[in-house]
Hints:
The complex is a heterodimer of chains A (146) and B (188).
Chain A: H1 2-14, E1 21-23, H2 31-41, H3 47-65, H4 73-81, H5 93-118, H6 123-133
Chain B: H1 3-14, H2 19-41, E1 45-53, E2 59-67, E3 70-80, E4 83-89, H3 107-119, H4 123-126, E5 130-132, E6 139-141, H5 148-152, E7 157-161, E8 164-167, E9 172-175, E10 178-179, H6 181-187
Antiparallel strand pairs in B: 1-2, 2-3, 3-4, 5-6, 7-8, 8-9, 9-10
Amino acid sequence: MARKALIALGFAAVATSAAAEEVAPDPNHESKAWEIAYEMFGGVFTPEQEHEIVALAWHIAIGNLCDDLAVDQAKFAEAIGQFRHSDGADASDDEHAYFVNQVISNLSVAVGILLAENADDPAPSCEAAKEQIADPEFAHLFEVGD
Amino acid sequence: MKKTIAIALGLALLAPPNVADARWADRDAKHACKQKARDQYDATHFHGVIVSRKGNDDFDITGVAERRGRSDVPFRCKIRNGNVMSMTSTSSGGGSSTGAAAAGVVAGAVLGAVLLGALSKDHKHDHHREHKDWRDGRHHKDHKGSGDRHSRRDSGAFSPRSGVTCHNYTRMCYSNGRYDPRATRRHY
């Protein structure tokens, strides 16, 4: 894809090494908490949905930690509403209800962990978020403009 | 007051009154069925486990039991009054049909109807088959196979570029020590 190629070229220009290297886990990554959280996901979500839950949680955490950033509630509600059980129409009403319950519950868990990771020193996270928001390639759910 | 607090409050209002209690009960049920599957099928790992609450202490749990060196076993486990009542393999396509599914409407179903009714205007039209991703604007088909994540998980971390660390188990990337959704999306 052209987009991927551009991204790859962009990073190739600044990367010190093209190859990914094994490194020690990031100390700011609450590994144990995340592992338990992912266990709590319980196989309900697809990997993509797991990413999405964490990304949505990041929006809530950043929106609450950073004075000049706020989540666009309409966009956020729409994003939440787009979650679908991976069994699709084959899912029973109960399964679907459970799925929605899991989305909300695990979203809350992820918010908590992200707050724990960022609340003591939110400034770098706020700056990083602003830098990402400024990237036209990065879709986000924050309010923009006045 | 932060605007996002309203989101949390809104979600809280839509949630059932005792989500925390329900969660732990669900988890207990799941663990009981996993233990039964370990005993019955020599299961070593699980994927795609879905817990459906049928009543206060009643659950139907489905999933796939993985076995070392042998084929996987799709299973259905029923818990009634906190006890494992049955553990059946659904690999033959049959599965038990007790006809009792219509009995219990749980609080979670109310939540699902309220939440999706409120938040998903197109819910009734797409039959769960397709959705628009807020991040790339593209339409995606349903993603079957949530269990795939387990087989791809391992421990450890790697650095795709300077300042970025990606964690294999959670498949999350951090830039300069902060969770980075952009890098995560790029590398996973």
